[in-house]
Design brief:
2 copies of one chain form a homodimer.
Chain A (H helix, E strand, L loop, with lengths): L24 H11 L8 E2 L1 H8 L3 H14 L2 E4 L3 E4 L4 H25 L2 H20 L2 H19 L2 H14 L3 H5 L4 H17 L3 H27 L2
Antiparallel strand pairs in A: 1-3, 2-3
Helix pairs in contact in A: 1-3, 2-3, 4-6, 4-7, 4-9, 4-10, 5-6, 5-9, 9-10
Chain A binds a DNA duplex (30 and 30 nucleotides) through helix 3.
Chain lengths: 233, 233
DNA sequence: AAAATACGGATTGTCGACAATTCTATGCAC
DNA sequence: GTGCATAGAATTGTCGACAATCCGTATTTT
């Protein structure tokens, strides 16, 4: 809403969605704050402080922290409190690898369920993405990129897998910018996305899976290099 | 311990492992009880009752339920309590599909990291599995089957992915028996496992991934049929 | 001076009690 | 007998208080 895009990260389904007003939406607000980067990684999350900040009781905050811990956004140590979890370079890579595996599968399924209407929507996003690249707007591009992938998840109609990727994404969101700012990436990325759309439109599962794999493998590769560079400097 | 195998499902890593005595190990014990099937699916989980049963306070039980909810083993509705989550046939299939995707990836990674010692261990498990089949012991076979796959996860050295599959497995554990009891399955399954070992031993990522995919795709297929049969009867 | 110890503040963990909500069963009208 | 309203029981949600634990600092010991 205010800061970044609204649909960038969907809240992982289940778990008492309809929550009272002040009470348990503490979870949602705290989550948003962390994902948006309003807390530093490794920053301590003191229950009493959070309770005051969010106008909730300590009980609610406590429940939220337990959830976020299980979700991997927060790290809780017995008697020592909670911190915003810092995902290491190593782990960020692992997460990305899992994402490759899952999105491959999702692409495969999407290919068997895609409708002409879906195809039109994907093509439109692709156009907008091109426009952003031409306009030199990496943030807008990144946002559309997210939309693109999320749309494929939706087409695939695999709730379990979609929830998992969404979850992983919110954990590694802090690393995203690294792969975006790579020089020469946008053009290539655009072509890769185009191929994905074509493969899906052709309703060809193997080709769709391969295209997605190709695309995301390159993202992983880029991330690897970025990390290596970041590490040796 | 009493009912089924002890190592069948590893507890998903993170989250305050060192917990006080009676206090928060409530989570572990409740989890085990659910996974072992000591609670019926959809059975209500009343906090006060659980607290008495496990000799813990309601607070601890509450935290445990929140965690289990996030984990997908329990379903919590505001003001209406928690139940053991019932995974639908549909969802069981989805879960299995995700498992295919993840284990494929894990096999690929394992192929690049496997040591001669690992190979020996895998071969040995394979032998024992053969023995179980010959002895007509499906439960023992199933247990070894789990060990086999878990060993590959360990070899792959991908903590994130491993945690996810382990988690998924505990959710769908109730469906396992359906695929096991399929006639003619054991022999074929055995051959598939053998091919996986060979591919890994050859340190061939593509072949390993393909072998795993082949194997698990068949499991999915079997599950599909079992569900269909179960549904139309 | 370095190490070990003891203290004090801050924070988490747990309990009991009460409010809020949902569920169940009874009674009443028709 | 069926449907609806209502009272009571059962259960969850939240708060405040206190105990347990940890961390940093000052003090003692060697």
């Amino acid at each position: 809403m205010a800061t970044t895009s609204p649909a960038v990260t969907e809240v992982p389904a289940r778990a008492a969605e309809r929550e009272a007003r002040g009470g348990a939406s503490a979870y949602l607000r705290l989550r948003e704050a962390i994902v948006d980067g309003r807390f530093q990684p490794n920053e301590r999350l003191v229950e009493a402080d959070l309770a005051r900040t969010f106008g909730a009781g300590r009980t609610a905050i406590r429940a939220a922290l337990v959830r976020l811990d299980q979700e991997g956004l927060v790290e809780r140590q017995p008697n020592r409190g909670a911190r915003v979890r810092l995902v290491s370079d190593r782990e960020a890579l692992e997460i990305e690898e899992v994402r490759v595996a899952l999105e491959q599968m999702l692409a495969r399924h999407a290919a068997t369920r895609i409708t002409p209407r879906d195809t039109r929507n994907l093509r439109q996003i692709l156009e907008e993405m091109t426009a952003r690249v031409d306009a030199g707007d990496p943030l807008g591009y990144s946002e559309l990129n997210s939309r693109f992938h999320e749309m494929i998840w939706a087409i695939a109609g695999q709730g379990v897998a979609s929830t998992l990727v969404a979850n992983l994404k919110s954990q590694s969101i802090r690393f995203q910018y690294r792969t975006i700012l790579q020089p020469g990436r946008p053009d290539r990325s655009l072509r890769e996305h185009a191929e994905i759309v074509e493969a899906l439109a052709a309703r060809d599962p193997d080709r769709s899976e391969a295209a997605m794999r190709e695309h995301l493998s390159r993202v992983v590769e880029t991330l690897k290099q970025a990390i290596a560079r970041h590490h040796t400097r």
